[in-house]
Each structure stands twice: as C-alpha cells, then as structure tokens.
Structure prediction request, 232 residues.
Amino acid sequence: MTTKTALVTGANKGIGLEIARQLRALGLHVLVGARDPLRGKEAATAIGAEFLQLDVTDPDSIAAAAGQVEVLDVLVNNAGILLERGALPSATPVAMLRETFEVNVLGVVAVTNAFLPALRRAPSARIVNLGSGLGSLAFTADPSHVYAQNPLLAYNSSKTALAAVTLSYANELRSTPIKVNLADPGYCATDLNFHSGPRTPTQGATAAVRLATLPDDGPTGAFHDEDGVVPW
Ligand SMILES: NC(=O)c1ccc[n+]([C@@H]2O[C@H](COP(=O)([O-])OP(=O)(O)OC[C@H]3O[C@@H](n4cnc5c(N)ncnc54)[C@H](OP(=O)(O)O)[C@@H]3O)[C@@H](O)[C@H]2O)c1
Prediction:
C-alpha cells in the first residue's frame, strides 16, 4: 500500500499542529503548511513531518506549494485568524472583516483550488475545513445559546461563509470520490483566543482527523464535532 499524503495549513502551532501530529501517528506522510519557515520547520521536525511554505493569502506561495505536490490524499484547511479582541459588531472596522475573510474564507478557496488537481489524482481524497460553532446560524440565532453572547462580526461571519464554501465544494464533488466536510474543534486553548478555551488542542483535533480519514461510505457535506453532527 502506498503511504497517503496529508497537508495541514497553519500547522506550526495550535490545533493545526495537533491535527498534523495525529495524522502522522496514523502513518500518513504529513506536510506542515506554515507561512514562516522557522516556525514551520521546527514544528515539522518535532513530529517527523515535512515543512511546506504556505501563506494562504499569497498566490505565489500557494502556487509554489501546489507545484511541489503531485498527489494529495488529505487537505486540512486549518489556518485561521480571529482579530476582534472584544470589539462589538458596530465597532468593527470593515478592514477587519476584509483581513479575516482573506485568511478564513478566500484563503481556503485559493488553497483548495490550487491543490484540487493533486487531490483528484488520489484514489479517494478528503478535504476538511476548520469551522466553528460560532459560525453556526442555528446556534447564534438562538438568543439563549451561549454563542449568541459572542457576536464576533468578522470571525463568526467568516466561519458561516466557510460553511457555505464547504457545502459548495461538497456538492460540486459529490459525484467524485472526494469528500468535503467541516470540523468544529470546540473551544480550545490556543493563541487564537489567548488560551481561554477549556479544551486542549489535542481534543480539538479529533473531529478534523476523523473527517480526514473517513472511509469511502462516510459523509460528505457534513458539519461534525467530536460528538457528531453540528447544526449549520
Ligand atoms: N481555538 C479554538 O477554540 C477554535 C474553535 C473553533 C475553530 N477554530 C479554528 O481552528 C483553526 C486553528 O485555530 P487555532 O485555535 O489553532 O489558532 P492558532 O493557534 O492561532 O493557529 C492558527 C494557525 O493559522 C496560521 N495562519 C494564520 N494566518 C495564516 C496565513 N495567512 N497563512 C498560513 N497560515 C496562517 C498561524 O500561523 P502563524 O503562527 O504564522 O501566525 C497558525 O499556525 C482556525 O481555523 C480556527 O478558526 C479554533
């Protein structure tokens, strides 16, 4: 059997590093996508993976990275940012939305499109995007839900857009062996939230790793956390 190859974006730390570590432990050849070579190489070496320079907002970086990968079995679009720092929706500059969408939404589209030829060359590829319960309209439309108390305009709307992006790709690729799903890691302690989350990055990686290694009869166009289905 040939070894499967996985690419995780933003894998030099946090949940991405844990996803990379767990995929490596399952025997995959793992590419640690990172924008900074020093941080990326250090993380890759620590888990026995390979570094791949990849800034998801830089078309040249994306093209150069895609040019180095002939066949890709797993793409995990993990790189993401949260810039609000407590700002309310009415006080959120439009520029903050633009910057957030650039990474959390447009970056995912650009990376997915660039690697799709390599994913199509794999026998049954998996694409996993990192969503969030904060992007679930079902949760945030319910005023009594804890996520309705966290109206992060740029971050939440970017993750809702990412949910739509995930479904668009799942529907386009439904007739192929490629499955496209959205993973919710839950609220994990990482640099993104100044380590305020109660969960560990290791726990946060669970849903993404499961979706990255789905069997051929697994779902596509699904939104899952560690316990199962998350409402859109
Ligand atoms: N933590 C949570 O509670 C939580 C909950 C739900 C969803 N998520 C999602 O999970 C994913 C990982 O988050 P995390 O909590 O692990 O955050 P994190 O520790 O801040 O890590 C984010 C990663 O994304 C990378 N990144 C940012 N901009 C990038 C770019 N332009 N190109 C390439 N890489 C870039 C960062 O690289 P640098 O080190 O170079 O900045 C870092 O490796 C994100 O999509 C996040 O929205 C997190």
